[in-house]
Amino acid sequence: MNTALRLPAPDVEALIQGRMIAAMSQIFLNPRRQFALYPSDASINLLPTEHYYRSAFLPIAQSAIAQLNSETVLIKAWAKCETCQILNDAESLAALSRLTVWTDEALQEILSQRGHIFLAYLRVYLLPQPLEVPVNPKGNFISLPHLLTITESSPVLSDHIFTERCQQLEHRQPPLHPELEELQNAISQVSINNPSAKELDRDIKIFLGWTEDSLVTQVDPDLNWIKTIAAVGNSSDGQEFEKLVRKSLIKLGFKNSNAKPEASLDPDSTGGAGGLDFYCETPYPVVGECKATKTDTVTDGTPAQLVKLGYKHLQQQYDSCIKIILAAGELNKHANKTATGNQMNVLRPETLQKLVELKAKHEGSINLLELKPCLEQAPFGEDADDKVKLYIDKVWQNIRLRSHLVQLVKNYLQNTGLDNAGVEALHGAYFGSHPPQPLKTEEMHDILIELSSPLTGYLGRKKGGDGSDRFYFLRDLPAA
To answer: What domains appear along the chain, each with residue ranges and CATH number?
Structure first.
């Protein structure tokens, strides 16, 4: 590809965000033609910005214009023209305005001056890396300084959603959720520095069909330090390992209001000489020691120290605590015997990292009250690591099952063209979908209700009596 179509920067931004799938061209665009999207200033528009764009989109339009550079242009996407309509019907422009970012006033002005509007339906794809090119102030189409290699690996919208949006635009069907569009616009203004607002903004965009879940999945920034737990645990940096363990326990949901440094969970400090490496108060008491090591065997001194310091700082409370030793090296037979006899769970740094990674990727996946019996019951000592691994595997199995069911609902509705589906039909489709495990109809129904809870929001539910609930797809559930 060596050409780019010049469009106003706000229009390009709306296309990249999935807010609309159309562009107004100065010339007729042949279907299947491909070009990069060149964001230009708004001088090519026939009205001032505040009259050209709808009020809900105006802040984004103004921001897109303000970010333009006087010397270079950043090209972030390319597009394929699916079809191009010639509009000369003034009565349909109000409906068109509701499906795009342009005001009815702007569309009427263009039609009155030009006698027609070339409306191109564009399938937009993101570039792997933005391309910076010199500003070129002239022409509808602009020659790129060198050939641009493109792929269809990052479409802004899936085939299914794009087809639905094309039909909606072609038939001038009104937006399904105008109130949500207004809410999204309000939230977007505060989402830059507010993680909760950013997540809600993302979910509303997915629900409105403005973007795909795979394109906006937010990576937890804590994964940067979480992925270092095993490496640090297998090093000689004991202080850093202790801090990472404390951060991990906080990430999992443990808390401690105790300000005493000798029995703390403060991730910015350590227990120091004579202090416990970590102590959690809620939702249940946990106490433990950390032992980072490259190659050394863990001696009897580590579990013995936990007993000594536990009674010293917690006294009788120590007996009711869950005891954990986090150690990279193997325990010698005396150390393992002491740990087992004192009901201490000996866990490896790799297992802790897997547990915290799971929490970071799936916020509600780790239930500390379900984890508690696992830590309270035998086996103890080094064998305890296997029972925690089994707990992690069980959680992943539950996530993969739920992810499979969400995808099942999505695929079933796309293949049948239905808006929603009943449990019996979905249960029948389940057995032909290479299911991860057998499920009874009642079991599937219970999980579908869970997935349609407002607190999860992967599916929607239309309630019915006597098990006649019907479900529809809202957003994907990643299984990794």
So the answer is: 3-172 (2.30.130.30), 175-217 (no CATH), 223-382 (3.40.91.30), 396-473 (1.10.10.10)
